[in-house]
From TrEMBL:
<keyword id="KW-0130">Cell adhesion</keyword>
<dbReference type="InterPro" id="IPR002126">
    <property type="entry name" value="Cadherin-like_dom"/>
</dbReference>
<keyword id="KW-0472">Membrane</keyword>
<dbReference type="InterPro" id="IPR015919">
    <property type="entry name" value="Cadherin-like_sf"/>
</dbReference>
<dbReference type="GO" id="GO:0005886">
    <property type="term" value="C:plasma membrane"/>
</dbReference>
<protein>
    <submittedName>
        <fullName>Neural-cadherin-like</fullName>
    </submittedName>
</protein>
<keyword id="KW-0106">Calcium</keyword>
<feature type="domain" description="Cadherin">
    <location>
        <begin position="177"/>
        <end position="259"/>
    </location>
</feature>
<feature type="domain" description="Cadherin">
    <location>
        <begin position="71"/>
        <end position="177"/>
    </location>
</feature>
<dbReference type="Pfam" id="PF00028">
    <property type="entry name" value="Cadherin"/>
</dbReference>
<dbReference type="GO" id="GO:0007156">
    <property type="term" value="P:homophilic cell adhesion via plasma membrane adhesion molecules"/>
</dbReference>
<keyword id="KW-1133">Transmembrane helix</keyword>
<keyword id="KW-0325">Glycoprotein</keyword>
<dbReference type="GO" id="GO:0005509">
    <property type="term" value="F:calcium ion binding"/>
</dbReference>
<feature type="domain" description="Cadherin">
    <location>
        <begin position="16"/>
        <end position="61"/>
    </location>
</feature>
<keyword id="KW-0812">Transmembrane</keyword>
Length: 289
């Protein structure tokens, strides 16, 4: 809730006040914002208002709201996200000055994730919004920027526009396993017995970038590939043979988790991101009947 807690005051009046004409009046207000909690908490702010001649015109934006502009989260620093422009509102004086206003949250550019550069093109001055820091869809998905433009009149007036930016997820996260790397298998268990389940998490924000599929690695060093199989969807690992502890006491197994789309990482050659799990299975004697 907002309330005025003191009557406004006037300063800068001249004799025209008596005629009901105020070409350069100023007002000072104090506004209080209060919540409805118990106890009531509040904060005050002072506001100063200048009244200008109605013939003085503020700058005029081409649009009051720009966007949403969609960009991929892995665009490089310095990339132009969008360009905006405004006219000065003053005949024969086209000069304008742009400012990208920092907000109070990360989504409103508190940490200067984006920056502004003015660009002159013939008789028009543009404002280019550029990427200042690396972006991350998994942290922040959208931004709401405020741009202020001021003209160069005797009474410098300003107006604001809003720029909406939406990030698009790219496949830049690697599936990471969460399980321990040692397991126990009972000798004599029938073929098809479940021995464990592995799980990998891909932190990408959208499907199929975060879809994980599991594989037993087919390599000569993976001695367990002939003794275990895996459910590609669930990560459950099952036996393919009946084990005998007298023949061999332990087996190593290598499992790979792949996500569901070509990787956006450098030098990925169109392959999905992947992570590996290396497990050791120790045979244990079955309990006596």
């Amino acid at each position: 809730m907002f309330v005025f807690i003191a009557p406004f005051t006037f300063f800068g009046f001249d004799d025209d006040k008596k005629k009901g004409c105020f070409p350069r009046d100023s007002y000072r207000l104090r506004v209080r914002a209060s919540d409805r909690g118990m106890p009531v908490l509040s904060a005050d702010v002072d506001v100063e208002l200048d009244v200008v001649d109605r013939n003085n015109k503020p700058p005029v934006w081409d649009l009051n709201v720009y966007g949403p502009t969609h960009i991929k989260e892995n665009v490089t620093v310095g990339t132009v996200v969008t360009s905006v422009k405004a006219s000065s509102g003053i005949d024969n004086n086209p000069t304008v000055f742009y400012h990208l206003m920092p907000g109070s949250t990360a989504q409103t550019n508190k940490f200067h994730t984006f920056y502004l550069q003015q660009r002159a093109e013939q008789a028009t001055t543009w404002a280019d919004i550029k990427v200042n820091h690396p972006l991350d869809y998994e942290s922040i998905k959208e931004y709401n920027l405020t741009i202020r433009v001021e003209n160069n009149g005797a009474q410098q007036l300003a107006s604001e526009a809003t720029v909406y930016i939406m990030l698009e997820d790219v496949n830049d996260e690697i599936p990471l396993f969460t399980e321990r790397e040692q397991e126990t298998v009972l000798e004599g268990e029938p073929v098809g017995s479940k021995v464990t389940q592995v799980n990998a998490i891909d932190k990408d924000g959208t499907f199929p970038n975060n879809q994980v599929t599991y594989y037993v690695v087919n390599s000569d060093r993976n001695e367990g590939k002939d003794y275990f199989e895996i459910n590609r969807e669930t990560g459950e690992i099952f036996t393919k043979v009946m084990f005998d502890r007298e023949k061999q006491g332990a087996y190593a197994l290598e499992v790979e988790a792949r996500d569901g789309a070509p990787s956006a990482r450098p030098n990925s050659n169109g392959q999905p991101n992947s992570g590996r799990w290396y497990g050791k299975f120790y045979l244990k004697a079955a309990a006596a009947a």
